[in-house]
């Protein structure tokens, strides 16, 4: 069969339009946007506060030491700390976990990780000590 250039052009446009329609349907049927946080606007408003907390960690050299043993994640602080720890799984939001942070007598906090999915996790620690607030984030491979 010998087609002229007009027929080929119409067939090409039809294929392209079909491709665009399929992508549009796929986009509409997808569950949600790929935003990391649903409350990103609120976090944007409080960005300066978080920045100051991170600067407190740097100024006072208060970075906690993060160690991974066989089935426990050990957070070692310079002084006693109380606050909150978040384990954020970037691949699956359902696995995110919030824990209350309270160090023991050796200024350590233990998180059991034996049952957690392996891979990259974001560790977000927010604590207070001597009236100052601190925020430290670190990526951990479990």
Label the structural class. alpha+beta
Low-pLDDT stretches are none
| Overall 3D form | elongated
**How are the strands of the largest sheet arranged?**
4-3-6-7
* Main beta sheet strand tally, sense and closure: 4 strands, antiparallel
Order of helices and strands: HHHEEEEEEE
Straight-line N-to-C gap: 61 Å
CATH level 1 class label: Mainly Beta
The total domain count is 1
Q: Please estimate the helix content.
A: 25-40%
Number of helices: 3
Question: Would you write up a description of this structure?
Answer:
With 142 residues, the chain is an alpha+beta fold. The chain has a single domain, classed as Sandwich (Immunoglobulin-like), CATH 2.60.40.10. The chain has 3 helices and 7 strands. The longest helix is centred in the N-terminal third of the chain and has 25 residues. It is elongated.
């Amino acid at each position: 069969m010998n087609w002229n250039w007009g027929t080929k052009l119409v067939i090409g446009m039809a294929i392209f339009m079909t491709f665009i329609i399929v992508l549009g349907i796929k986009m509409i049927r997808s569950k949600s946007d790929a935003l990391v946080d649903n409350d990103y606007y609120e976090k944007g408003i409080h960005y300066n506060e978080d920045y100051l907390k991170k600067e407190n960690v740097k100024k006072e050299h208060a970075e906690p030491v993060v160690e991974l043993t066989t089935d426990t994640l050990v957070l070692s602080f310079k002084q006693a700390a109380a606050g909150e720890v978040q384990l954020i799984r970037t691949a699956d939001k359902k696995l995110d976990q919030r824990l209350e942070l309270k160090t023991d007598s050796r200024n350590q906090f233990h998180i059991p990780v034996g049952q957690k999915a392996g891979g990259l996790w974001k560790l977000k620690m927010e604590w207070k000590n001597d009236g100052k607030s601190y925020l430290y984030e670190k990526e951990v491979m479990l």
